Amino acid sequence: MIEFDGRGVPKSVLVVTPHPDDSELGCGGTIAKWISQGTEVTYLLCTNGDKGSSDPSITSDELKRIRGQEIDEASKVLGIKNLVQLGYGDGELEDTSEFRERVVKNIRIFKPDVVMVTDPVRHKFYVHRDHRIAGQVVLDSLFPYARDRLHYIEHEAEGLTPHKVKTIMFWGSEEPDSYVDISAHLDTKIKALLKHKSQLSDNESENQMDDLIEAVALRAGAKCGTKYAECFRTIQFTV
Question: Hey, what CATH topology would domain 12-236 get?
């Protein structure tokens, strides 16, 4: 299990999610647990999810509107007060100075103890390109960009100072090393996920989604001695 302040609870967390629903799927139970214990959680949504549909009748603009509503509703279920949307198109994330600057700026604004994002390193299974780009850009943003004042020095004119994040937690990792017990919060995770109705395929029911999420949480829980858990690859920043 992860320890932060002796209670296993960070004061402030920034969750960087490539698409609407990624964060609920990867760390929704942990978010719900920590918010219930007083953690302030901010969502940084990178893309608007305007491409991921097989419906021949829907347009990107309509999908963008729907996905925006869904993540707003899911955030309310979890108790998230700060939702920042960067507005990139689905599939359009790039490892650029501009994207990195926007991530660094939000790190300096919200000053999180912990940042959570998708693991960019996968060898055994395919992963959406936006997930890889988001994970790598966020890691670079934390070390060294957000830490060193001369990176994006223009932030000082806005009253923003460098910030050193203590921990990054990657969800979706093939090699997790940290676990969070979400036994009391699995229902909240599922309720938040089910707000993303447009993400369900024609052959997928809400009950099937419930069963899938429970099965994944059971497997993680079995590895750490709890009923339900979420797992992460964690890096502690020491310099």
Answer: Rossmann fold (3.40.50)
